[in-house]
Design goal:
Strand order of the largest sheet: 1-2-10-7
Order of helices and strands: HHEEEEHHHHHHHEEEEEEHEEEEHHHHH
CATH architecture of the largest domain: Alpha-Beta Complex
Largest sheet: 4 strands, mixed
Distance between the termini: 45 Å
Number of strands: 14
Keywords: Methyltransferase, S-adenosyl-L-methionine, Transferase
CATH class of the largest domain: Alpha Beta
Pfam families: SET
Helix content: 25-40%
Mean pLDDT: 87
Shape: globular
Radius of gyration: 24 Å
CATH topology of the largest domain: set domain protein methyltransferase, domain 1
GO molecular function, one term: protein methyltransferase activity
Protein name: SET domain-containing protein SmydA-8 isoform X2
InterPro entries: SET_dom, SET_dom_sf, SET_SmydA-8
Structural class: alpha+beta
CATH superfamily of the largest domain: set domain protein methyltransferase, domain 1
Number of helices: 15
Strand content: 5-15%
Length: 445
């Protein structure tokens, strides 16, 4: 079986318990006061995949389409992130140890002094204490991650119907999340119906969830959040809408381009500045489909050459790009000497660039990164390659957000040049007023 077949093999979908019309009504109920009086969109069947969101009138570039509160949310509990954040408000609990951050009632969940007596925590606390955590002195990421799923217990009837109306791709691996959580408790439930409800919720999360980001107490908080309406936006590599988060539990979706009435509203499931092969690999591994949008079928990616590498033929300084767009292992052709190279050879060069640049990103100061990008990278990587673009973005983020150093005028000039280069690429891609553009021009934080 080829790599392409493995990544895109059919993943069974769980039965959806509502028609598109019923789903639209559940969405309206879910939005509540956030539902616009006259929405510019409607939920309908999509030729791309399943259900989608379509414009019912012309929509102007930059127009806010909707705001939405999460249906379910909880910590991502990724290792390497600070687990000592309150599960409700995301502020840092008092103290420096896990034991000080954990609820004093013994539920095993980190919670701050203001939220420990809240009604929201009381139900979760009671449930986790009933299951008896095995360790009440340390925060267990397995138990913490299952919290977003366990919160399905506390949904009302309409919310449960909405959860079951969402697309949920079944995957045997997803059950491991429940099994890993069960290992943390003495009396985790074994009732088949309850475990099936958990499994359905995990599948809905892994099919639709966002990693919502916000700044709390000076640190970035990443939560796993389920937004049913935003989750119905289908993928395009150059979409006409983008999102950002007001806080960890509220998403805002805006049009990045003018959208004609009747057109489907789309977003990107990948980073906009990834190369075609990087996007295809990510979509195949996480979403089990191969995108065939116009950008994916153009080897030059609208003239951005995000995939380009240097020709390996002696004496040639040309750019080499993949010449086939419907495979994960394409041949590569030099635009100057027209020599063709096998994918395996070019993949090694791309991996070398990726590893070399990422190692510098993780270890270098901003000043050293600027020197590396300007002086050393041109020896082995074209300035258009997506990995080098990621390095330039890293410099922009660090200089804009961290602000720990005083930068010389020439360093600030390099930052401005990187920003202009990236804005030019976004323009070529037709990305419009995308979130990335707003972030690097500091229109939003």
């Amino acid at each position: 079986m080829s790599q392409l077949q493995v990544l895109t093999e059919d993943v069974p979908q769980m039965e959806i318990s509502a028609s598109t019309q019923e789903l639209a009504a559940l969405i309206d109920d879910h939005l509540g006061p956030l539902r616009p009086t006259s929405p510019a969109w409607q939920v309908a069947d999509s030729p791309i995949s399943g259900r989608g969101i379509f414009a019912v009138r012309p929509i102007a570039k930059g127009e806010q389409l909707f705001r939405e509160h999460t249906l379910l949310v909880g910590p991502t509990a990724h290792r390497g992130r600070n687990l000592r954040t309150c599960i409700n408000c995301y502020h840092l609990p008092a103290g420096d140890t896990d034991a000080e951050a954990l609820c004093s009632s013994g539920c095993g969940l980190p919670v701050c002094g203001e939220c420990v007596e809240s009604p929201r925590h009381a139900l979760e606390c009671q449930l986790f204490r009933k299951w008896q955590p095995k360790d009440v002195q340390h925060i267990d990421p397995r138990a913490l991650r299952i919290l977003s799923v366990v919160r399905c217990f506390f949904l009302n009837e309409s919310q449960r119907k909405l959860l079951y109306a969402m697309q949920a791709n079944a995957d045997r691996y997803y059950m491991r999340e429940v099994q890993r959580a069960a290992e943390c408790f003495e009396h985790f439930p074994h009732d088949p119906d309850m475990l099936e409800y958990f499994y359905r919720t995990v599948c809905a999360f892994n099919t639709n969830a966002f990693e919502s980001r916000c700044q709390v107490d000076g640190q970035e908080i990443v939560a796993r959040a389920l937004f049913p309406l935003a989750g119905m936006l289908n993928h395009q590599c150059t979409p006409n809408a983008a999102h950002h988060f007001e806080d960890g539990e509220t998403i805002v979706v805006c049009a990045t381009e003018n959208i004609a009435a009747g057109s489907e509203i789309t977003m990107s499931y990948t980073k906009l500045l990834w190369s075609t092969l990087a996007r295809k690999m990510f979509l195949g591994m996480t979403k089990h489909f191969m995108c065939q949008c116009p950008r994916c079928q153009d080897p030059t990616e609208n003239g951005t050459y995000l995939s380009a590498l240097f020709c390996r033929e002696q004496g040639c300084k040309g750019l080499v790009i993949p010449v086939q767009t419907k495979t994960l292992q394409p041949d590569w052709r030099c635009l100057s000497c027209e020599n063709v190279f096998p994918h395996a050879k070019m993949a090694r060069y791309q991996d070398f660039a990726l590893n070399t640049i990422n190692n510098r990103i993780n270890t270098c100061s901003v000043r050293d990164m600027i020197h590396f990008i300007n002086e050393l990278c041109p020896r082995f990587c074209p300035p258009s390659n997506y990995v080098l673009i990621e390095a330039k973005l890293n410099v922009i983020w660090r200089m804009t957000r961290l602000g720990a150093e005083e930068y010389a005028p020439e360093e600030l000039a390099h930052k401005d040049r990187y920003r202009e280069e990236i804005l030019a690429i976004l323009h070529k891609l037709g990305a419009g007023e995308c979130t990335l553009k707003k972030l690097i021009t500091e229109e939003i934080q």
